[in-house]
Amino acid sequence: VAQPALGAVEVGLWGLMRQLGLKPDMAAGHSYGEFVALHAAGAIDFSALMTLSAARGRFIVDAASAQGAELGTMAAVSAPRKVVEDAIADIDGVLIANHNAPLQSIISGTREAVKAATVKLSQAGAEVTEIPVAAAFHSSLVKPAQQALSELIEATAWAPTQMPVYSNTTARVHPADVARVKRQMAEHLVRPVEWVAEIEAMYHDGARVFVEIGPNPVLQSYLRDI
């Protein structure tokens, strides 16, 4: 329920900003928000966005339940990325799922692995905060849902984007080839979000005024730090 609701709010705000004369040169969306950014750029229509939004969460829960697998959890870590990488290097089942800011990463994995990582990171002086999430997004724990999501993305009508949209996965502009964009978004569920590199790429390509569209100004704080 949360993702379609969030998408609907963001699309409504996007419509308002367009009425006010906003004409962006490029776009990006954080995690699920990348689907909304692709909608804003004309790649998918509103109906397709809502269908994909609802299915994305449902496929994760259904696939994990069918296999009897745990969905895992996530935690926010306030520390340089290198500190986080070193702390979790010898812990199986956990990875950096989001690099949101120079001093903030999100770890994702099994509950046991995230707990072990939390202990090590805390001992290293890092602040760790568990995030109340439905699953360990952007990790292999949600891979059982990937095939179903990939099939739905493939069956959905997509069009070339009308402005550059940057990818969480590659931190570069999505390719012009629609088939390649579909493949990247099918992989999006299990690949880390390289938000710092993505914002740096947008800045390198000329972005100077960043407008966040959403219910909470979370990304602006990341942006200032980057």
Q: Would you kindly provide a written description of the structure presented here, covering whatever features stand out?
A:
The protein has helices at about 1-20, 35-40, 45-65, 80-90, 110-125, 145-155, 180-185, 195-205, 220-225; strands at about 25-30, 75-80, 95-100, 105-110, 125-130, 165. With about 230 residues, the protein is an alpha+beta fold. It has a 4-stranded antiparallel beta sheet with strand order 3-4-2-5. A two-stranded parallel ribbon has the order 1-6. The longest helix is centred in the N-terminal third of the chain and has 22 residues, at about 45-65. The chain is globular. The two termini are about 30 Å apart.
Question: Top keywords for this entry?
Answer:
single chain, 226 residues, alpha+beta, 4-stranded antiparallel β-sheet, two-stranded parallel ribbon, 9 helices, globular
Task: Give the arrangement of secondary structure elements.
Layout: H1 2-19, E1 27-28, H2 33-40, H3 46-67, E2 73-78, H4 81-88, E3 94-101, E4 104-109, H5 111-123, E5 127-131, H6 146-155, E6 165-166, H7 178-187, H8 195-204, H9 218-225
The largest sheet has its strands arranged as: 3-4-2-5
Q: Total number of β-strand segments?
A: 6
Q: Estimate percent helicity.
A: 40-55%
Largest sheet, in brief, is: 4 strands, antiparallel
Describe the structure concisely for a colleague.
The protein has helices at residues 2-19, 33-40, 46-67, 81-88, 111-123, 146-155, 178-187, 195-204, 218-225, and strands at residues 27-28, 73-78, 94-101, 104-109, 127-131, 165-166.
